[in-house]
Amino acid sequence: MSEAENQATSVLLPGSRVAVYSKDKKTLEAAQAVEKDWRFARVEIQSEDGDIETAIATYQDLPSPDLIIVQTETVDEDFTERLGGLAEHCGEGTAAIVIGPKNDVYLYRQLIEMGVSDYLVKPVQSEILADVIAKTVIERIGITGSRLIAFVGAKGGVGTSVIAQAMAWGVSETLGQKAMLLDGSGGWSTLGVGIGFEPSTTLPEAVRAAENQDEDSIARMLFTASEHLNILASGGDAMLEQVITPAQYENLLDMLMVKYPVVMVDLSASTPGLKNAVITRAHEVILVSTPTLPALRLARSLLHEMKEIRGDSEEGIEMIVNMQGMAPANEVPKADIEKAMELKPSAFIPFNPKLFIGSESEGKRLIDDKAGAALVSNSLLPVLKTVLAVDVEGIHVSEESSSSGIGGLIGKLAKK
Ligand SMILES: Nc1ncnc2c1ncn2[C@@H]1O[C@H](COP(=O)(O)OP(=O)(O)OP(=O)(O)O)[C@@H](O)[C@H]1O
Ligand SMILES: [Mg+2]
């Protein structure tokens, strides 16, 4: 097995576009089924009821995708000529796969010589189609990693965990992206309460399984919160015992990042070493603070240290000011926060105990509440717009549909 074939079976594929042109209903169905494969979370598959002529016409005006799959009922000289015609309209990086009516070694060789990546004979099973697409995409683009998002609080109790959990629901349910949420705090974790599961493992157990590349044990340690959201069900640790080393935790992240497009880590109540390790390598760090002086002081110092360990750059660092309005007379005004932090906060979240503490106590997801869902769509998910390419307009909940009470307030806040 080639390295690309080897990797194709076990990794998350890079973001890419695949177009399928076929008049065969079975092929189109197989292509649609491929999209459900977890490896294809970032692969956009477009199936067209058409043939090589449709493809040629399409790419006369539009940029070609990374891979074009065309099905043909006749494989004669005319077809290979048309294939040459298609190549003229495609970018250099575009790969092609042909699906044909019969098994023919001579034809196979001829197509491969023309630069076609593979030739498949109909009917194609979706598993085979998935493997062939995966292999081709990896050969063309290589592997790019998943996104790692870290949540860190300026101090304890500022709401880092509830924000991480609300974001995790937003990413998985609202955006439909396959995500993993984990908590670095061992026995101090409140994730079980927030999401609603009994911790069934400890961080030392999880890192040991990762050290042994023991996928089965890792799988048993996961809590399936929903179709797209998995949680590492740690938290069974003793609270007063030394947890794991940062290197061990990174090892665990490496293993999870192969399978999950989005990996989110709640670092509130984690050790400084673990925070350092995860913040250093995260694609995005969400710094949570309240608008009060003690929290902002720490947020400012933390921001400086974070920039330092991230190569003197504030790229990929976003700040969320939480619990705005909890103590209005004693809060630092918005403009002053921005000036003092030298960073414009990406979101301001109102103090709303009914929503936050209410959902928490009832074991409800924030997104199941109308105002909570609007908050996630309009204020929280836009913070991830760069790192996850979120279509902010597409998920925005309009003010009209949540015009009463806090929903309306959130709508207004989001517009600022
Ligand atoms: N905007 C908000 N309005 C009202 N209550 C909130 C808000 N955000 C968080 N809370 C509540 O504040 C409490 C602390 O939140 P959370 O546990 O997420 O904080 P944390 O920063 O992770 O704390 P720790 O440092 O202990 O990990 C929770 O009860 C939560 O429901
Ligand atoms: Mg916490």
Question: In a few lines, what is going on in this structure?
Answer:
The chain has 416 residues and is of the alpha/beta class. It has 2 domains: 3-141, 3-Layer(aba) Sandwich (Rossmann fold); 147-415, Rossmann fold. 44% of the residues lie in helices and 17% in strands.
Protein architecture, described:
- Helices cover 44% and strands 17% of the residues.
- Helix 7 (160-174) crosses helix 16 (370-380) and helix 11 runs parallel beside helix 12.
- It folds into 2 domains: 3-141, Response regulator (Rossmann fold, 3-Layer(aba) Sandwich); 147-415, 3-Layer(aba) Sandwich (Rossmann fold), CATH 3.40.50.300.
- The chain is an alpha/beta fold and 416 residues long.
- The model is unreliable at 402-416 (pLDDT under 50).
- The protein starts with a helix and ends with a helix.
- The strands form 2 sheets. Strands 8-9-7-10-6-11-12-13 form an 8-stranded mixed beta sheet, sandwiched between helices.
- Strand 1, helix 2 and strand 2 (43-49) form a beta-alpha-beta unit.
- The structure holds adenosine-5'-triphosphate and magnesium ion.
- Magnesium ion is lined by residues 160-161, 190, 268-269.
Give me the CATH fold name of the largest domain: Rossmann fold
Helical coverage, percent range: 40-55%
Ligand species: adenosine-5'-triphosphate, magnesium ion
Number of strands: 13
Cα end-to-end separation: 54 Å
Mind telling me the C-alpha Rg?
25 Å
Average pLDDT for all residues: 90
Structural class: alpha/beta
Based on Cα principal axes, name the global outline. elongated
Strand content: 15-25%
Specify the CATH class of the largest domain: Alpha Beta
Instruction: Determine the number of helices (DSSP H or I, runs of at least 4 residues).
Output: 18
Low-pLDDT segments: 402-416
**Number of self-contained structural domains:** 2
| Order of neighbouring strands in the sheet with most strands | 8-9-7-10-6-11-12-13
Largest sheet: 8 strands, mixed
CATH architecture heading of the largest domain: 3-Layer(aba) Sandwich
CATH H-level superfamily of the largest domain: P-loop containing nucleotide triphosphate hydrolases
